[in-house]
């Protein structure tokens, strides 16, 4: 199903230095997290290409099968030339480095990354249940307990990332995948960055941008908690709180900066859900839930989450039955994803061409096909 938020609606400007200095000085937490394991070497010839799972402005994502263990994976292929021309080199480097550092049940796992003369390749878990976005559009909106289930898992994932000084910066239903057991996996870390203090860059999806980003102020982890409030609202109502039908960005940003007073609250919202959203959609980031004295503990302790057993979610989430179980017929079933024109794109991968950009991506191992 086509997204209401088109490719052109995603904003990204070249990464600027935050008040903490260059990104290389703020890597302590991420480097320490690399105990999760280093990647092994991969190459194109290790995989059978099955079909396309998604396309974007930089390339596409393929479903592949390993010739070694016959498991299915997703390979994200990015054109180095397109990444360079759109000034996404730093974001792409960050995505690889951060995904290799994280290890959490609600975050997609990156197994390795490599490059050839023309492209970058990232090998990730294949998550067969599709996007939460697709499920939400089919359902129109979620009942309160269903929205609460997904919000709880997202909150745990964000809290884990923040503990590593990682700001996610691109929370939205399209970036939440459903595993075969119905539990979530956050994906697409293209806008994530390591940041122990503040950042300045304008990036993210317009409907989910926090006011401080729009006002071009320095910001921190609070922007992810704002985005969680937007997500909860969208799950419960079917549309984001600051949605503008004609896609007028100026009008949308004015509504976001006005905060909750610009929101039309659907009558079906449960009182505690409304209060949870209001505390996350606080325009002043210093007063926003998730950033106060108790940090994420304020979110976890909110009455809307009173039925949630956080210890079980953290330690034994597989014991909790998800509200929706994807229909997966086989290990490589990709029926939850849209069908794309298969133009034999993989035939062009690994071809001997001039490499103008290889030195820009030192974290991607250079391999032959």
UniProtKB/TrEMBL annotation:
Pfam families: Pkinase (PF00069). Residues 306-369 form the AGC-kinase C-terminal domain. InterPro entries: AGC-kinase_C (IPR000961), Kinase-like_dom_sf (IPR011009), Prot_kinase_dom (IPR000719), Protein_kinase_ATP_BS (IPR017441), Ser/Thr_kinase_AS (IPR008271). One of its GO terms (cellular component) is cytosol. It comes from the Eukaryota. The keyword Nucleotide-binding applies. It comes from Phanerochaete sordida. Residues 1-32 are annotated as: Disordered. Residues 1-24 have a biased composition (Low complexity). Residues 47-305 form the Protein kinase domain. GO terms for biological process: signal transduction. Keywords: ATP-binding, Kinase, Nucleotide-binding, Serine/threonine-protein kinase, Transferase. This is cAMP-dependent protein kinase. ATP binds at residue 76. The lineage of its organism: Eukaryota, Fungi, Dikarya, Basidiomycota, Agaricomycotina.
